[in-house]
Design a protein that fits this description.
The chain is built from twelve helices and 18 strands.
């Protein structure tokens, strides 16, 4: 299979690193060709803190995915999270030189690129500039201004900002693992692509992705991203609490959480006990499930309440900003028993668990349809989508050295793709002409 036919998403998480290779089939669904996962060592709360270990873990996941699919991985789309991520709202405008011409893609790019030039705090860099609504000559609430007449083009933007050093560290790990960095995407955006339907985004929905080191939030309303946040707690702090509270080792605490854990302490009887083998030569430990779920409950309530504060900050209580579709939970942490009920109880909002199976081809492995892989599937979708936008990748141009963000002014990928598209088309038409000329 030639290089241009498949894409790769790489999810660098706190607990696991997942490399997922796939392509779009003829029905527009994603066919997963190979998957590799390794234990993530060197990432703490979504941020790389040990380069060497992270490179090793990435290489392990990539090798496994390559072996699984029989394909070679070149360029990857990577997710970014961590507590250094913040978002802000910003309005900007451009005055068009000729209002007799209709607004085109170029005008929108010019406006977006202007936002990228915003002065950030020292050590920060803009990752995404997401347009929300446009205004043309004072006419508000325009979703798509292309093709309209107007002299002044305004827009409200949702700007996502991250630390330069964290972004560079991810780039360094990817490069040292022998890969090319195709794009960097905010993880909650990737997860939302994988598990939310367009109807939910229209109605208003909050996606909560509970990972190992962070809990990511993305809020959509009227089909537009309205708010993003990364909370520096996840499933790992629950494991840590069980470890401390029950005086057992981390591996046992993790197993206890997965097998017997519940976010609702009321359902366990006092006499339900789990026996855990003691360390070399010591007596086994007996732990009541009621105590276990009390420990889990206390920490989960804290995480959910922090997320709920962010949802309130967005202003979901206003009639115009109401989230009709409620909350969607995804990520590994969402598999905790009775979590859905607890979230409904705390927030009073409808809640469901989000599985990334809607966009996957019917014959996909059951395992991939787990909430664990929501971010990885979302990153793969992003990679496939960007290939359509950037045929430069199709030709396997792995020499794009700089970090390529979506629509980033420094990245000349868009220009490259225009040249590429033309030249590929020219070559094709020449071949067709030759073929017709030589035809009998």
């Amino acid at each position: 299979m030639e290089k241009g036919n498949y894409s790769v998403g790489l999810d660098i998480g706190t607990t696991k690193i997942v490399a997922i290779i796939g392509k779009e089939n003829e029905y527009g669904k994603i066919e997963v060709l190979g998957i590799g996962r390794s234990k993530s060592l060197g990432v703490h709360r979504g941020v790389v803190n040990n380069i060497t270990q992270t490179i090793k873990s990435i290489q392990q996941a990539v090798e496994q995915a390559e072996a699984d699919s029989g394909l070679k991985i070149g360029s990857v789309v990577v997710g970014i999270a961590g507590q250094h991520i913040r978002s802000l709202q910003h309005s900007d405008y451009i005055t068009r030189a000729n209002s007799e011409e209709v607004i085109n893609e170029e005008d929108l790019d010019k406006l977006c690129n202007q936002v990228y030039k915003l002065v950030m705090l020292p050590g920060e860099e803009i990752i995404h500039v997401l347009p929300q609504e446009y205004k043309v000559d004072g006419q508000a609430e325009i979703k798509q201004p292309i093709g309209m007449y107007g002299g002044r083009l305004e827009a409200n933007f949702h700007v996502v900002v991250g630390q330069v050093s964290s972004i560079k560290n991810i780039g360094r790990c990817i490069k040292s693992a022998g890969l090319d960095l195709g794009n960097i995407t905010l993880e909650p955006l990737a997860s939302s692509d994988a598990v939310l339907s367009q109807e939910e985004k229209e109605a208003g929905v909050a996606l909560i992705d509970i990972g190992g080191g962070t809990t990511d939030l993305a809020i959509f309303k009227d089909g537009i991203i309205r708010h993003t946040a990364v909370i520096p707690f996840g499933g790992n702090v629950i494991t840590e609490d069980i470890k401390e509270g029950c005086s057992i080792i981390e591996k046992q605490a993790e197993l206890l959480k997965i097998k017997f854990g519940s976010a609702w302490p009321g359902e366990n009887k006092d006499n339900e006990i789990v026996s855990i083998p003691g360390l070399r030569g010591r007596e086994p430990k007996e732990i009541t499930l009621k105590n276990l779920s009390k420990i889990i409950h206390a920490r989960v309530v804290e995480i959910v309440e922090q997320v709920y504060v962010e949802i309130k900050n967005y202003g979901h209580e206003e009639q115009k900003k109401k989230l009709i579709a409620g909350i969607v939970l995804t990520g590994g942490g969402s598999q905790l028993k009775h979590l859905k009920q607890l979230v409904e109880y705390i927030t009073g909002m409808d809640t469901r668990i989000g599985y990334p199976n809607e966009h996957l081809a019917g014959d996909s492995d059951q395992e991939i349809a787990s909430p664990l892989y929501a971010t990885a599937v979302g990153l793969l979708m992003n990679a496939i989508e960007n290939k359509v936008k950037h045929p430069a990748y199709l030709e396997g141009n792995g020499d794009v050295e700089e970090l390529v963000f979506e629509g980033h002014p420094e990245s000349r990928t868009a220009e490259k793709s225009k040249v590429e598209r033309k030249s590929v088309f020219d070559v094709w038409s020449e071949k067709l002409k030759d073929f017709l000329d030589n035809a009998e």
